[in-house]
């Protein structure tokens, strides 16, 4: 057991008092100061440095739809975060170690050693914020979706939605590295350019400019083998009848419906699913931990060799959390890649 | 090369002159006499004895929806059939051999040796019509769907639609043999009784008597692990939000929409698919030929030991084909298990 340094008396944390029944409003989250408890054996005190802002957090806030993943009311909102251990009552996690927890949206947190990952184990020699981008949930979600769920093969045609987002920007690049022909969709012309020119997609389209059937017919006249879907909504509905035989849809999110009543799926004729032997599969990356070591090894190699970038946008300060969450839910928002909040650790 | 016996001069066959654009009508199929050609090397002449009447035939007749599986217009309708080789120009297929072809809905047919299965290889010592029921497409479709597509485990809760039908009646029994808790749906009270009393389902319900959400909530209050779906329609829509975490839907047909404009699928909120990590997978049993030997071995053993029955209903005569096809498309039809047409080989 190791103890060191000055101990903060209070933590500041964003709290959700009530699960949502309508769209997220700025005052649904409340910043609260809370006295930090003394550590129990097996616990560490973490000072957060980077926090991931994830559209799926909105789903966990939803009274009607969150189910088993709902945030507990009246408690600090969980978010993936990288922080430094300030005080330790856990064997093998020394003070100064960088760790990833689900204890973001707060400056200081008490974490159990069995519910955290050590950043060095994830990122090796790379900067720690990679544990929230290419070597964290976004990279693992894209890798697992394309490799395990969709079994993407070289030469296949891949569609990626939200292709300028935290997960989509990595799925585009992984698809390209796997030898697929990659089509991306995004919500602004700037992002469309960025997806092709910077991320290497073969083509991309602005889903605000036209209904999705037209660009899919134009850019993939022979149909799609794999759709990496993290939006749901009209693009998913347009993709289903345009899948080729034995097509696979890896579905990791439906952000288009998170801040409304949900994203419906309307397939005119379910016979398409049999006639083309389609698979539509939802997944959560935490259910695939057994394959993370192999995924991380490949992702780290790509990063180290310069084949993969970890796009992200950084905003500063705990106060920026509510606006950042609204931003990742807003169609056509201007940030690119993963949105991270960097913490203002000067707060007393 | 072997030749023998009297050679018929003409075959009688049911022909579809035009793909359908509306519901099937009695005169859409036309019985035609056709002179049989001389055999080419590698061909055999088959006299059909049993023909399978399959709801999916209707889908192949549909101009708008059949896609790559559409029947060629103006030709005899293909159906799985067991027949006896009358004349052979193929090595290894002697006269008198029983074979399965896709050349049903006719009395005599010329088959290529590389497009048939030898009945003995499928059924062993069991009666040949098993090649169209438990040891043919219905049994293989049920076995592949539950074993490969859905990976059904002992103790899980399984829903089977069309549970009194040709495929469903086998899926119920295979589910039970795998140790699952089995719920069946059917369209008459008589069938509901038969599914539980004769096939061994734990429970069953009449989908005409109430909307499907109510019986599912009553019979599976903790939700469904696997749904073996060959109907689509309202039961599929009711099942999706009632699937447990990591639930699997094996989808081999959507008979509820075959004779109409198709079976729509309307999911209120596709987030259910991610939140519960659901898989919806369509498949065609012919795509899984590599695993047929293992499936047939297990199915044959169950049949031989009396653990599995091969339910079927027989109607006689080539003239009964159109009514038999209408019957398998009719909700609440009274036949049980697979519907077979036994051929009137006395036809001149």
Automatic annotation (TrEMBL), chains A, B:
SUPFAM superfamilies hit by this protein: GroES-like, NAD(P)-binding Rossmann-fold domains
Keyword Transmembrane helix listed: no
Gene3D superfamilies noted in UniProt: Medium-chain alcohol dehydrogenases, catalytic domain (3.90.180.10), NAD(P)-binding Rossmann-like Domain (3.40.50.720)
InterPro entries, sorted: ADH-like_C, ADH_N_2, ER, GroES-like_sf, MDR_fam, NAD(P)-bd_dom_sf, Quin_OxRdtase/zeta-crystal_CS
Enoyl reductase (ER) domain: residues covered: 24-341
Annotated GO MF terms: oxidoreductase activity, acting on the CH-CH group of donors, NAD or NADP as acceptor; zinc ion binding
Keyword Oxidoreductase appears in the UniProt entry: yes
Alphabetical keyword list: Oxidoreductase
Protein name as annotated: Enoyl reductase (ER) domain-containing protein
Organism field: Actinomycetospora corticicola
């Amino acid at each position: 057991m190791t103890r060191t340094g000055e101990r903060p008396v209070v933590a500041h944390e964003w709290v959700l008092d009530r699960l949502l029944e309508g769209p997220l409003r700025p005052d649904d989250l409340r910043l609260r100061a809370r006295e930090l408890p003394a550590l129990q054996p097996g616990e560490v005190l973490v000072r957060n440095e980077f926090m991931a802002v994830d559209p799926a957090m909105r789903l966990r806030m939803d009274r009607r739809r969150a189910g088993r993943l709902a945030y507990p009311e009246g408690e600090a909102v969980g978010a993936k975060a990288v922080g430094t251990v300030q005080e330790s009552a856990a064997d093998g996690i020394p003070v100064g170690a960088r760790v990833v927890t689900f204890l973001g949206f707060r400056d200081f947190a008490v974490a159990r050693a069995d519910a955290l990952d050590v950043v060095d184990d994830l990122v090796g020699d790379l900067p720690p914020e990679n544990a929230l981008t290419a070597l964290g949930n976004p990279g693992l979600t894209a890798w697992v979706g394309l490799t395990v769920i969709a079994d993407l093969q070289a030469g296949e045609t891949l569609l990626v939605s939200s292709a300028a987002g935290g997960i989509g920007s990595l799925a585009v690049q992984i698809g390209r590295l796997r030898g697929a022909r990659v089509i991306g969709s995004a919500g602004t012309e700037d992002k469309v350019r960025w997806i092709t020119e910077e991320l290497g997609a073969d083509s991309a389209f602005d889903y605000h400019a036209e209904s999705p059937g037209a660009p899919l017919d134009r850019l993939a006249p022979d149909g799609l083998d794999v759709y990496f879907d993290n939006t749901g909504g009209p693009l998913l509905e347009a993709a289903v009848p345009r899948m080729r035989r034995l097509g696979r849809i890896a579905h990791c999110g439906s952000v288009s419906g998170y801040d409304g009543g949900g994203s419906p799926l309307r397939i005119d004729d379910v016979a398409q699913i049999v006639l083309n032997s389609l698979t539509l599969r939802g997944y959560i990356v935490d259910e695939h931990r057994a394959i993370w070591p192999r995924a991380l090894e490949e992702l780290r190699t790509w990063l180290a060799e310069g084949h993969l970038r970890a796009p992200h946008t950084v905003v500063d300060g705990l106060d920026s959390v509510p606006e950042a969450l609204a931003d990742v839910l807003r169609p056509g928002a201007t940030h690119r890649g993963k949105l991270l909040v960097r913490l203002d650790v000067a707060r007393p």
